[in-house]
Design a protein that fits this description.
Largest sheet: none
GO cellular component, one term: plasma membrane
Keywords: Cell membrane, Membrane, Transmembrane, Transmembrane helix, Transport
GO molecular function: xanthine transmembrane transporter activity
Organism: Staphylococcus lugdunensis
Structural class: mainly alpha
Number of domains: 2
Shape: flat
Distance between the termini: 67 Å
Helix content: 55-70%
Number of helices: 6
Radius of gyration: 20 Å
Protein name: Purine permease
Order of helices and strands: HHHHHH
Length: 103
């Protein structure tokens, strides 16, 4: 009810500030990533490529069927899920070598 009485330009200005803060936080997280590690570069490249690609060519994933429609309707969702899966695959549970493991 309260959102209905706020003028649209005010909501637009608030959204610009909010999304700008989210983007700035994301960039600051990227600043902590070790880009010397090729796995991290690959994760970022594939995730951003899929996220931007689904927005540019939405018909590319139509063959996956209706059960995956939720995944391919939004580039942010596809990019985020692919980043999570790839990060777990490439950087996930690192095996720590100890004396017990070596024996």
């Amino acid at each position: 009810a309260l959102a209905n009485i706020i003028p649209l330009p005010v909501l637009g200005g608030a959204m610009i500030a909010m999304f700008g803060m989210v983007m700035a936080y994301g960039v600051s997280i990227l600043g902590n990533i070790n880009f010397q590690n090729q796995n991290n570069l690959l994760i970022i490249a594939i995730s951003v490529g899929l996220g931007a690609g689904i927005s540019a060519v939405p018909q590319a994933f139509k063959g996956l069927g209706e059960q995956f429609a939720w995944l391919t309707q939004n580039g942010i969702v596809l990019g985020a899920i692919s980043a999570i899966i790839l990060n777990f695959f490439f950087n996930g549970r690192k095996y720590k070598q100890t004396e017990e493991n070596v024996k």
